[in-house]
């Protein structure tokens, strides 16, 4: 039977970018802490999870009342620009730049071995949103910025979405190549990301 250390390790392995050695270190760290720390951690996780919601428009995870997040409900944002990102943390990177458009969280990348849409991404919802916002009477000029990491899967996702968005009367652009290959957006410094936004293609 699996012991508690192995159970914790298996749970930490689900964290993005965490390998088996790091996961086991996390497990031992938790078990070596005072009971008050562990209880506080458990309570904070439970409270945070119960107060977190997914925006019904952009799919960003946020705290507050269900519905639209603070960005989508901000009347001062530029409504004719939508940056499509992989995950909610990528929005945090954008918010440190001068970008003041809207967002859409795809919820993952399309693997290079996959030719079309896969379960687990919000590709269908993105197409529906673009269709609605680019068509009369509500529609108008619209630019969709594909903002994915410069990795094989990121490039493949960019290509697939370009193909799917081609039938709609919109401008589709991608981040400029000022970023290093393999870079995750959430770790990019604001100046580099802003330069890539200005040089989008």
What would your notes on this structure say?
- This protein is α/β, with parallel strands linked by helices.
- Helices cover 40% and strands 12% of the residues.
- It has seven helices and six strands.
- It has helices spanning 4-12, 20-32, 35-51, 88-94, 123-133, 152-165, 190-198, and strands at residues 52-54, 61-63, 81-85, 102-105, 143-147, 171-174.
- The strands form two sheets. It has a four-stranded parallel sheet. The chain has a two-stranded antiparallel sheet with strand order 1-2.
- Strand 5, helix 6 (152-165) and strand 6 (171-174) form a beta-alpha-beta unit.
- Helix 1 packs across helix 2.
- The longest helix is centred in the first third of the chain and has 17 residues, at 35-51.
- The radius of gyration is 19 Å and the shape is globular.
What's the mean pLDDT score? Answer: 86
Assembly of the depicted chains: single chain
- Overall number of strands: 6
Strand content: 5-15%
Provide a compact summary of the structure.
The protein has 201 residues and is of the alpha/beta class.
Main attributes?
four-stranded parallel β-sheet, alpha/beta, globular, about 40% helix, about 200 residues, two-stranded antiparallel sheet
